[in-house]
C-alpha cells in the first residue's frame, strides 16, 4: 500500500513560474527521495535527502524535510516545458537495510504551459 | 556508466501463461528491487535481492518470484498470469546501504490478454 499522499494530485502552471509539491509519509524514515516520471516510462532520480537534513538543493530543485510533521516538499524554480511529468516522493524506512524497499507516494502530475 | 537495463521493454501474454523479466543493474550495485506500477495501486514494492539473497518481500502472491545471479543481474517471474497483472514493472538498483540512491530502469510494460 502507499505510504503517503502527495499534494496536489495535479498542478498546471505557466512556464517560468515556480512549482511546489508536497509529500506526507507515515513511518520513521532514514531518507526521502524524489523521482520524476515521463508518460509511464522509468523513474528518474532527482534528489535524496537524509532524515537528519532539513533542506537540500540541486540545480533548480529545492527539497525540504520536516520529520516532526512527516512531510517533505519539492520546489522547482523557473519551470520549463520539459519539467512536465509526474513527480513521486519515496521513503526508505529506518527499519530496512537501505533503500531496497522504497514506499512511494501517489504522485503529482505537473503540467507546464508554454 | 550504463544505467539500469530492463528487457524486454514490451510484452503481451495470454492469461495462464508465465513470463520472465530481466534487469541488469548499474555496475557495482549489489541490490536489485522490483516494483509494479498500475493506475489503480500506484507503485508497489515486490521484492529485493542483495548478493543473490532475497532480503525483503512485498505483499504479492506466490505467483510472483525472483532471483539474482552472481553478477547481480536479476529476473522476476510471474506464473499463471491474470489480467490484473498487466502493469509497468520497474527494477531499481542501488548499493543496498542506507542513504544511497536507487536508480530505476525504463521498465517492462506487460499486457495480459
Can you give keywords for this protein?
heterodimer; A: 114 residues; mainly beta; 6-stranded mixed β-sheet; 5-stranded antiparallel β-sheet; B: 113 residues
Structural commentary:
The complex is a heterodimer of chains A (114) and B (113). With 114 residues, chain A is mainly β. Chain A is 0% helix and 56% strand. In chain A, the strands form 2 sheets. In chain A, strands 2, 4, 5, 9, 10 and 11 form a 6-stranded mixed sheet that branches. A 5-stranded antiparallel sheet of chain A has the order 1-3-8-7-6, with no helix packed on it. In chain A, strand 4 and strand 5 form a beta hairpin. Chain B is an all-beta fold and 113 residues long. Chain B has strands spanning 5-7, 10-13, 19-24, 31-38, 42-50, 53-57, 64-68, 74-78, 87-94, 103-104, 108-112. In chain B, the strands form 2 sheets. In chain B, strands 2, 4, 5, 6, 9, 10 and 11 form a 7-stranded mixed sheet that branches. A 4-stranded antiparallel sheet of chain B has the order 1-3-8-7, with no helix packed on it. Chain B is globular, with a radius of gyration of 13 Å. Chain A binds chain B through residues 1-2, 30-31, 33, 35, 40-45, 48, 50, 88, 90, 92, 96-104, 106-107, and chain B through 4, 6, 31, 33, 35, 37, 42-45, 48, 50, 55-56, 58-59, 88, 90, 92, 94-107, 109.
Topology of this structure?
The complex is a heterodimer of chains A (114) and B (113).
Chain A: E1 6-7, E2 10-14, E3 19-24, E4 29-37, E5 43-50, E6 55-58, E7 61-66, E8 71-76, E9 85-93, E10 102-104, E11 108-113
Parallel strand pairs in A: 2-11
Antiparallel strand pairs in A: 1-3, 3-8, 4-5, 4-9, 6-7, 7-8, 9-10, 9-11
Chain B: E1 5-7, E2 10-13, E3 19-24, E4 31-38, E5 42-50, E6 53-57, E7 64-68, E8 74-78, E9 87-94, E10 103-104, E11 108-112
Parallel strand pairs in B: 2-11
Antiparallel strand pairs in B: 1-3, 3-8, 4-5, 4-9, 5-6, 7-8, 9-10, 9-11
